[in-house]
């Protein structure tokens, strides 16, 4: 039985998507729920799996093609074994082989996904032997070649040295949809908001001592949940947002929308770019819940498993450039939010304490805010509240 493979149903905020990678080719055996294609949107990469055991009979939308919500992208033959696809599937495969030959690859057969990955990783396809039927090179072959021992490195170095004097190699790669969307939003934030940044510094010793004293007990009581620093900052931000509601607000046309809840976005780096999953109703979470959710969102962001809903909304964002070694930076707003908190690297510095010099673990904090809505007094007060709660964690518990 022939089944139509369709693009996923996109939310209202997503107009269309792009076929990123076909993981299976026509005629190749596929098991039920096995990944067959990735669809990239502005925010996430959506996976489409096989509806049953069988094989693709025809690919309608090639890699790089734009697809709409629920648009047919391929046809699937239920129960077909590998290599037993319909004639049209064979025609598609034959066309693919012809395209490979036309591109100058001779007899070498390469899956489109493998070719794309090889370009990204700098793997020379001419030196690979395909493991699939007919010697076809697959994505897995490219990954194995990339992970091969470093013995091949000198040969690559020689090839680079052999480039004629005066020649400079360039590589042009089109932006992914997500990278283009990130670029658009950052540019929009810088051009459509009156963004300003205020800075402060915080003594991390009290939090570090607290964490050192209780991390083992915390992990034991909360079933393996680790006690990190981000949970404390989210807790402090929630309390500070209650005191300064303008920092938790957003601008909608000529209106100011004050949110009676704290949905905290935590910026996370993923292979596809920076994403901001949301901790919903963070004001109702305990520290262990926050740490669990932050870790879960971070892992799924790394694996590209976040849903669009998990990255939609948010009333305030926290970003931590310190994990990459950033000492000080100016975070860019995440519209329509009106403020974003930037954490940075913890570094020991000499500080004056009661007339004496002490070496303390210090962190610079940065609060970027939209001056159209938030005045300097509110912004500075908000950041000082964060500083005071981190330097005296009892304030978070006592809400003072």
UniProtKB/TrEMBL annotation:
Cofactor note: Binds 1 lipoyl cofactor covalently.
Catalytic activity: N(6)-[(R)-dihydrolipoyl]-L-lysyl-[protein] + succinyl-CoA = N(6)-[(R)-S(8)-succinyldihydrolipoyl]-L-lysyl-[protein] + CoA
Organism of this sequence: Microbulbifer aestuariivivens
Peripheral subunit-binding (PSBD) domain segment(s): 109-146
InterPro entries recorded: 2-oxoA_DH_lipoyl-BS, 2-oxoacid_dehydrogenase, 2-oxoacid_DH_actylTfrase, Biotin_lipoyl, CAT-like_dom_sf, E3-bd_dom_sf, PSBD, Single_hybrid_motif
Domain Lipoyl-binding: 2-77
Keywords carried by this UniProt record: Acyltransferase, Lipoyl, Transferase, Tricarboxylic acid cycle
Name of protein: Dihydrolipoyllysine-residue succinyltransferase component of 2-oxoglutarate dehydrogenase complex
Record's function text: E2 component of the 2-oxoglutarate dehydrogenase (OGDH) complex which catalyzes the second step in the conversion of 2-oxoglutarate to succinyl-CoA and CO(2).
Sequence similarity: Belongs to the 2-oxoacid dehydrogenase family.
EC number: 2.3.1.61
CDD domains in the record: lipoyl_domain
Cofactor: (R)-lipoate
UniProt cross-references to SUPFAM superfamilies, sorted A to Z: CoA-dependent acyltransferases, Peripheral subunit-binding domain of 2-oxo acid dehydrogenase complex, Single hybrid motif
Broad class of enzyme this protein falls into: transferase
Keyword Acyltransferase: yes
Family annotation (Pfam families): 2-oxoacid_dh, Biotin_lipoyl, E3_binding
Involved pathway(s): Amino-acid degradation; L-lysine degradation via saccharopine pathway; glutaryl-CoA from L-lysine: step 6/6
């Amino acid at each position: 039985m022939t089944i139509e493979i369709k693009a996923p149903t996109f939310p209202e905020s997503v107009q269309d998507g792009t076929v990123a990678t076909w993981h299976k080719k026509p005629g190749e055996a596929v098991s039920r729920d096995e990944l067959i294609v990735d669809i990239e949107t502005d925010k996430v990469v959506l996976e489409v799996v096989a509806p049953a055991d069988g094989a693709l009979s025809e690919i309608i939308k090639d890699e790089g093609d734009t697809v709409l919500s629920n648009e047919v992208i391929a046809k699937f033959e239920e129960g077909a074994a590998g290599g037993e696809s319909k004639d049209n599937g064979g025609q598609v495969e034959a066309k693919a082989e012809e395209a490979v030959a036309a591109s100058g690859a001779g007899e070498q057969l390469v899956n489109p996904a493998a070719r794309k990955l090889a370009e990204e990783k700098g793997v020379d396809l001419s030196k690979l032997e395909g493991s699939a039927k007919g010697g076809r090179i697959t994505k897995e072959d490219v990954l194995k070649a990339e992970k091969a021992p470093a013995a091949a490195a000198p040969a690559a170095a020689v090839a680079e040295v052999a480039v004629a004097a005066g020649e400079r190699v360039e590589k042009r790669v089109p932006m992914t949809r997500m990278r283009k969307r990130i670029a658009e939003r950052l540019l929009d934030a810088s051009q459509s908001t009156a963004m300003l940044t205020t800075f402060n510094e915080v003594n991390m010793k009290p939090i570090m001592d607290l964490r050192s004293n209780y991390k083992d007990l915390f992990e034991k009581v909360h079933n393996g949940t680790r006690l990190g620093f981000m949970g404390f900052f989210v807790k402090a931000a929630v309390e500070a947002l209650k005191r300064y509601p303008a920092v938790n607000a957003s601008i909608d046309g000529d209106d100011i929308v004050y949110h009676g809840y704290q949905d905290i976005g935590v910026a996370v780096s993923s292979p596809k770019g920076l994403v901001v999953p949301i901790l919903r109703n963070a004001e109702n979470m305990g520290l262990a819940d926050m740490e669990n959710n932050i870790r879960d969102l971070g892992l799924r962001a790394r694996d590209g498993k976040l849903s669009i809903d998990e990255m939609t909304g948010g009333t305030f964002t926290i970003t931590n450039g310190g994990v990459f070694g950033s000492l000080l930076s100016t975070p860019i707003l995440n519209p329509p939010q009106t403020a974003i908190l930037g954490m940075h690297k913890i570094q020991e510095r000499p500080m004056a304490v009661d007339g004496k010099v002490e070496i303390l673990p210090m962190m610079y904090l940065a609060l970027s805010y939209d001056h159209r809505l938030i005045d300097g007094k509110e912004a500075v007060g908000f950041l000082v509240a964060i500083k005071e709660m981190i330097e005296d964690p009892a304030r978070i518990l006592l809400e003072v």
